[in-house]
Structures are given as C-alpha cells and as structure tokens.
Amino acid sequence: MLRAAFSGSAYVGVFARATDDCLLIRPDVDEDRRADCADELGVPAVPTTVGGAGTVGSLVAGNGNGLLASSRISERERTRIEAATDLPVTELPGRINAAGNVVVATDEGAYVHPDLSREAVTAVQDGLDVPVERGDLAGVQTVGTAAVATNAGVLCHPKATDAELDRLEAALGVPADVGTINYGSPLVGSGLLANEHGYVVGQDTSGPELGRIDATLGYVD
Predict the structure, then answer these.
(1) What is the pTM of this model?
(2) Which of 37, 90, 117, 126 is the most buried (most CB within 10 A)?
(3) Rounded Cα distance, 146 and 137, in Å
(4) Which is nearest to 40 in space by CA: 18, 58, 7, 62?
C-alpha cells in the first residue's frame, strides 16, 4: 500500500490508470513518486497524456486483454502506449467517451455507463474481450468513478445497494463491497489505483478505509 498525491491532489485515480500489466500516469508527476507507484503496483510506469490532457485515469480503462481510451487520443499517444505496454488500445466512440470514468472492468467482464451507445458497448467488448453490462451505482452513471476493480474484488460507492452489488459481481465475476477513500469520499475510482500486486491511494485516506480496501480487493485473507 502507498498513500500518495499527484501535483498536490489526493485524487490519484484521476491522473493515472493501473492494470496488472502497466501504470499509465500523467507525465508531470515527480519521477521519484512515479517510481514508487510503479514499484508498489509491480508494473512499469508509462508517462503519457491522452488527447493532450493529464487526466489519464479519467480517460483510460483496461484489463489484461487491452486498453480503452477516449476518442481524443492522438495517434502518437496511442503508438507510445501500445509500444510500452504491448496491449492494443481501442478508442471509445461517441459522446460519452471518457473511458476511465464510464467503464469498470476485470478480465471476466465490464460494467459501463447506462447510456453508452451500442457502438460504444461493442468497442468495449472488442477492446477488452469481455461481456458488457450497462448500469449505474448508487445513482452514479459514471461507474468508473464509483468503483475500482481488480481480478480479486471490486470496491464500490458506499451507497451502492445490495442489488447493485449483486449485479456488479455477476458482471465482473468477483466479490463486491462498499468503501470510501480520502477520509470519506464516496467516489473511490477518483482516488485509488489497484491491481493484483498492490494499490496506491490518496494521501488523505484513513486507516479504517485502508482496511476496507485490503479486505475487499483481496490483499488480506
């Protein structure tokens, strides 16, 4: 576990995206901090922007099969990411295309914004090679901000209902539970980076919140 801030912000999930294969992170994060995060997550760090923006976590989602990126991604950014990660990058088409905000995925499935178009759902299916379920969490349609998933579990907005958690578990193939980050923030996706090896969380996250992350995402027995 590593508590961190990027450019003074504890909302690390806005600026980076972790999978079991890589850490995509905004390029102006301090080099030592970037190295610490890569070490905690056990994957190489890939400094990048998406469409020229540093909000990489909001604009990219992924699993072990591939990455999804906002259609604003440039060809140069896509080429750099694919070369560094050895993962294909698929653009998320349509008006709702901030992939990190609207998709939460494991290697078994994806749960997406309820208003994603049929074309966008097909892009998620093809890019991540998983079945896709539309839905929201606790009334939040940007499900990527309301949940963080690994191949061991998914941490969700604290107001997610039991029915929503059951649906999410069925879609992603892992157990789901609720929690918060950064001393009570319900939008866990905005402040948590996690994969099979470990996690990086906003510096304001409390001890009880860390305990819930540990238990839900499978870092403790």
Answers:
(1) 0.96
(2) 37
(3) 7
(4) 18
